[in-house]
């Protein structure tokens, strides 16, 4: 169970459900990389930094770096990520276990979702190599994260974009931290947690070709495809979208507004789902008076 509790991997799964569920074999060919990258200037024209949407776990053999991206990283003075201390897996696991555990016995997982979705939850549990008895004292949101992680294949978090960036810039600023992210899930209503479980089951059953298309869209910076996918599944639920995406982006804009004058150019690298659409970070910062220009 401890290995499954390195939940930073699973957490990122939800921020754009299809995009971050890359589970295909590593021996296929991938397109030349050109993932979306934005420059941020203030109203006076001064460079404040860059915005880059990440994938937290990649199959082997996927090259995502470009000369333009490397140039931006060479100029940055501070990396900004969701969680800075990804290597402290023991502390992350302990915090997850503390928050996700229920002192009282809970109903079987299948009974925590509507009748029409119970077969999908049963298949998800089987696919993860588990049994329903394992979840008696695990809250629904915790079960969703564990099952999402357990059903991933051929994607390695050590290949993740954020981990590579943190190796280059270990003195990073974090926007949230693992504990805050787990508290976000723990504060979800029963209905939101139920929808979380259902969405994980749906994503686990998704066709591999769809997952490949998602990763290729990220690699090539195809925001139209990514926007279409981000409006489906988990993020199609208005309450979950507000909790997992929109509210967090608003909070991050406030933090970035304070950080921009304090540090030199920032390289802001967060889950790719946070960059997309009208409630994405580029649009949110633009509304605050920053000039956002896509450069890749």
From TrEMBL:
It holds the Pfam family TraB_PrgY_gumN. The keyword Signal applies. CDD domains: Tiki. It comes from the Bacteria. The keyword Signal applies. Residues 1-26 form the signal peptide. Keywords: Signal. PANTHER family: CYTOPLASMIC PROTEIN (PTHR40590:SF1), CYTOPLASMIC PROTEIN-RELATED (PTHR40590). This is TraB/GumN family protein. It comes from Altericroceibacterium endophyticum.
């Amino acid at each position: 169970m401890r290995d499954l509790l390195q939940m930073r991997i699973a957490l990122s799964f939800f921020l754009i459900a299809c995009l971050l569920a890359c589970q295909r074999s590593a021996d296929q060919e991938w397109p030349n990389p050109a993932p979306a990258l934005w420059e941020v200037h203030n109203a006076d024209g001064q460079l404040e930094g860059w915005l880059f949407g990440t994938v937290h776990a990649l199959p082997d053999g996927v090259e995502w770096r470009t000369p333009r991206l490397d140039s931006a990283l060479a100029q940055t003075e501070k990396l900004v990520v969701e969680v800075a201390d990804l290597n402290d897996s023991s502390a992350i696991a302990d915090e997850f276990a503390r928050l996700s555990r229920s002192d009282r016995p809970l109903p079987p997982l299948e009974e925590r979702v509507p009748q029409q979705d119970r077969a999908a939850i049963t298949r998800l549990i089987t696919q993860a190599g588990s049994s329903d008895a394992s979840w008696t004292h695990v809250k629904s949101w915790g079960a969703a994260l564990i099952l999402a992680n357990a059903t991933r294949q051929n994607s390695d978090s050590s290949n993740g974009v954020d981990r590579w960036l943190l190796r280059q810039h270990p003195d990073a600023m974090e926007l949230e931290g693992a504990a805050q992210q787990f508290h976000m899930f723990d504060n979800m209503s029963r209905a939101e947690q139920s929808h979380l479980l259902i969405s994980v089951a749906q994503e686990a059953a998704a066709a591999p070709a769809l997952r490949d298309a998602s990763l290729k869209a990220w690699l090539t910076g195809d925001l139209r495809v990514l926007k279409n996918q981000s409006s489906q599944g988990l993020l199609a639920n208005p309450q979950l979208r507000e909790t997992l995406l929109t509210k967090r982006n608003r909070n991050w804009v406030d933090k970035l507004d304070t950080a921009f004058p304090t540090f030199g150019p920032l390289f802001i690298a967060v889950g790719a789902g946070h960059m997309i659409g009208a409630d994405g970070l580029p649009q949110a910062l633009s509304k605050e008076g920053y000039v956002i220009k896509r450069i890749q």
